[in-house]
């Protein structure tokens, strides 16, 4: 096992020094090559009789010395590259976040320059968590309320059964029901917050997305008494949200053409997880963040 | 104008100087941090076998060269 505690800058600095020294060997190699050529072909160099040249045995020696220097330089460069690779691996491992070996998402570090990183704070940020919770609960509530209204209109026995079941619940359920009436307002408030963020960031697609959500909420609320209008409004809202999610994913894929391939090359074990539960692609996958 | 013993000695000296500086840089590299373990030992061994020894051998070959007068 290797224990590398070297700073990457130190290693790279020394690697540069080594490369510079290897460059200095050029002069010695050229001198030896010239000496060998002059001695082997004296007439080409216009040498006069009596001039000193290498003995035949020495010509062989200089040739072999040249080969040894060339091999030494190549080996030195290879060893330095190995060391730089180790340092690179150390940097890569150090930049991974806790738990990355299980989830895979944190492998997408800055060093990798692939899909934008997802920080733990993005997942566990209390405000984000609360916002997403309200968003999801309000969506579910809206779906449930619409289904209930539809049942009242077209499947009254089911509606009556539900009402009977609801009344049989303990008193806290009644309080929950009162709170439930505030949920759609909370959902719209979340959309309003998102719209505010999009406006402050000058995010035009975000303004359209969240502004559109608010408009759909208002229209749906206005049409709710007609029931059919409420159902259509809820359907449009679902399609609107899903459409934006898909568009976001497609945009990420277009902007990172090789990222998907590289992601699964690095963390192949995530592929079956994503295949079994596609939603995880957005949480611990290449489209997270 | 032919070769000279000075030129040969100079080439050998250049090789030895480069070898010594390289060895020194690698030693500094090892001392600079807490790099240790089997891979670190292997790096040192390979550096010695593949770089240091070859350069020393090359310098020795150059030093052993002899010059003779050209006869045509």
Record the SSE blueprint:
The complex is a heterodimer of chains A (289) and B (72).
Chain A: E1 2-3, H1 8-40, E2 52-54, H2 56-95, H3 100-103, H4 120-124, H5 126-154, H6 156-167, H7 171-180, H8 183-201, H9 204-223, H10 228-255, H11 259-266, H12 270-276, H13 280-284
Helix pairs in contact in A: 1-2, 5-6, 5-8, 5-10, 8-9, 9-10
Chain B: H1 5-32, E1 36-37, H2 38-63, E2 67-69
Helix pairs in contact in B: 1-2
Structural summary, described in words:
The complex is a heterodimer of chains A (289) and B (72). Chain A is mainly α. Chain A is built from 13 helices and two strands. Mean pLDDT of chain A is 75; it is low at 97-118. Chain B has two helices and two strands; from the N terminus they run αβαβ. The model of chain B has no long low-confidence stretch (mean pLDDT 86). At the A-B interface, strand 1, helix 1, strand 2 and helix 2 of A face helix 1, strand 1, helix 2 and strand 2 of B. Strand 2 of chain A pairs antiparallel with strand 2 of chain B.
Summarize the structure.
By secondary structure, chain A is mostly helical. Helix content of chain A is 76%, strand content 2%.
Number of domains of chain B: 1
- Broad shape of chain B: elongated
CATH architecture of chain B: Orthogonal Bundle
Number of distinct helices of chain B: 2
Number of domains of chain A: 2
N-to-C order of helices and strands of chain A = EHEHHHHHHHHHHHH
Oligomer: heterodimer
- Based on secondary structure, the structural category of chain A is mainly alpha
**Could you tell me the strand content of chain A as a percent range?**
under 5%
């Amino acid at each position: 096992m290797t224990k590398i505690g070297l700073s990457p800058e130190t290693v790279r600095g020394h690697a540069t020094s080594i490369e510079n020294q290897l460059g200095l060997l050029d002069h010695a190699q050229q001198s030896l090559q010239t000496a060998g050529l002059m001695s082997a072909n004296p007439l080409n160099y216009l040498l006069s009789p009596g001039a000193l040249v290498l003995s035949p045995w020495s010509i062989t020696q200089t040739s072999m010395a040249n080969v040894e220097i060339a091999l030494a330089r190549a080996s030195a460069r290879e060893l330095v590259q190995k060391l730089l690779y180790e340092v690179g691996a150390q940097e890569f491992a150090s930049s991974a976040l806790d738990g990355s070996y299980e989830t895979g998402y944190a492998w997408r570090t800055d060093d990798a320059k692939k899909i934008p990183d997802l920080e733990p704070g993005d997942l566990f940020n209390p405000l984000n968590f609360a916002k997403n919770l309200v968003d999801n609960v309000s969506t579910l509530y809206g779906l449930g309320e619409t289904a209930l209204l539809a049942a009242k209109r077209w499947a009254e026995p089911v509606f009556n059964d539900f009402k009977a079941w609801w009344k049989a619940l303990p008193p806290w359920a009644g309080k929950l029901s009162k709170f439930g009436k505030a949920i759609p307002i909370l959902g719209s408030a979340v959309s309003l917050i998102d719209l505010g963020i999009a406006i402050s960031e000058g995010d035009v697609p975000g303004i359209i997305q969240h502004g559109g959500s608010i408009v759909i909420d208002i229209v749906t609320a206005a049409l709710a008494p007609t029931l059919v209008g409420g159902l259509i409004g809820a359907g449009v809202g679902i399609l609107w949200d899903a459409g934006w999610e898909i568009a976001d994913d497609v945009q990420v894929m277009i902007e990172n053409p090789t990222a998907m391939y590289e992601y699964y090359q690095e963390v192949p074990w995530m592929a079956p997880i994503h295949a079994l539960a596609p939603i995880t692609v957005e949480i611990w996958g290449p489209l997270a963040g | 104008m032919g070769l000279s013993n000075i030129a040969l000695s100079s080439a050998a000296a250049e090789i030895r100087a480069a070898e010594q500086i390289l060895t020194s840089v690698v030693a500094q590299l090892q001392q600079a941090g807490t790099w240790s373990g089997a891979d670190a030992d292997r790096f040192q061994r390979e550096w010695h076998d593949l770089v240091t020894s070859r350069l020393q051998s090359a310098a020795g070959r150059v030093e052993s060269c002899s010059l003779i007068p050209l006869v045509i």
